[in-house]
Design a protein that fits this description.
- It is a single chain.
- It contains eight helices and ten strands.
- It has about 230 residues and is an alpha+beta fold.
């Protein structure tokens, strides 16, 4: 199951992956069938969209949709320029780290997805929130959101995920691809960006690290706490 799923998800066999990827697979010695073994497991009461909306509701925050960070900012000789002016404040960057550095060491590999939503005229499509398909079909899994955020609708919405290679400028990056070569290239980028002391890299794409949602929220809270103390 893990071999075929990994081959479909990542495009190569488990033995070609970095050990950190395979190390995420939980090994349990009991009859608990849940993927995560945490004592408390939950999602935001009103969903992640509302959680992000609440975070952005501060009047001191300006949101610029449809704007690539590199269209309004550039790095030069240890300094960060935004809108043509030197910016001396902290920059919390969550995008692709190779793009931030101008691809000076080449492209880092990422995996992407084609996301296909379907509305179905049944109360429930499957028995659980997520079902993986390691062997059959081109998609890796189906998620049914009513299991996560219950609603009284007579219809249901499912999401099929079709894994793809990320092509810069054509589709969105979702997961960093871990192997010896990519890890070495990322370390070059991390070292290169150390000259920009005000830039803090946060998240999957910027840190080139596989974060689950709970992990990345904890990471964000840690970064904020460090900023408040410093």
């Amino acid at each position: 199951m893990f071999e075929q799923y990994s081959l479909k998800q990542w495009g190569f066999k488990p033995e070609q992956m970095d050990a950190d990827v395979v190390g995420r697979i939980p090994v349990v010695l009991n009859y608990d069938s849940r993927y995560f073994q945490d004592r408390y497991q939950a999602v935001p009461r009103e969903g992640y969209t509302q959680m992000i909306t609440n975070m952005l509701s501060n009047k001191r925050i300006k949101v610029m949709l449809g704007t690539n960070f590199m269209d309004i900012a550039h790095l030069q000789e240890g300094k960060v320029y935004i809108m043509g002016q030197e910016f001396r404040g902290s920059v919390y960057y969550t995008g692709k780290v190779d793009e931030l550095a101008g691809f000076v060491f080449g492209l880092l590999p990422y995996r992407s997805f084609k996301l296909q939503f379907e509305r179905i005229n049944v109360e429930y499509f499957q028995d659980v929130a997520q079902v993986n398909y390691p062997n059959q079909y081109d998609f890796t899994r189906i998620t049914e959101f009513k299991h996560i955020q219950p609603s009284e609708s007579k219809d249901t919405v499912i999401l099929k995920e079709y894994p793809l290679e990320h092509v810069h400028g054509e589709n969105d990056p979702f997961y960093p691809v871990f192997n010896k070569e990519s890890r070495g290239r990322y370390e070059k980028y991390a070292e290169f960006l150390q000259q920009y002391k005000q830039i803090i890299l946060v998240g999957r794409l910027a840190e080139y690290k596989y974060y689950d949602m709970d992990d990345v929220v904890a990471r964000a809270l840690d970064v904020v706490e460090q900023a408040m103390q410093g």
